[in-house]
């Protein structure tokens, strides 16, 4: 497995984890009403967005290296 493929798989797995963590935080916020879960949810959504932006920039940069 190349370093590029490992990097892309790691970004995808991290993005999926952020989606799950956001869902988990939301359900716990609804159930317990604790504001810390709300801040965890916001943090996971922001991390997910940043991971998607990083994924796109990485693909663009990596494509430019070999073309």
**Helical coverage, percent range:** over 70%
DSSP E strands, number: 0
| Tally of separate helices | 2
- Form type: elongated
SS-derived structural category: mainly alpha
Number of domains: 1
Query: Secondary-structure element sequence?
Result: HH
Cα Rg: 15 Å
Main sheet record: none
Portion of residues in beta strands equals: under 5%
Sequence stretches where pLDDT stays below 50 over 5 or more residues:
none
Average pLDDT metric: 92
Distance between the termini: 20 Å
Key structural traits:
67 residues; mainly alpha; elongated
Walk me through what this model shows.
By secondary structure, this protein is an all-alpha fold. The protein has one domain. Helices cover 93% and strands 0% of the residues. Helix 1 (3-32) packs antiparallel against helix 2. The protein is elongated, with a radius of gyration of 15 Å. The model has no long low-confidence stretch (mean pLDDT 92).
Please describe the topology of this protein.
Elements lengths: L2 H30 L2 H32 L1
Summarize the structure.
Helix content is 93%, strand content 0%.
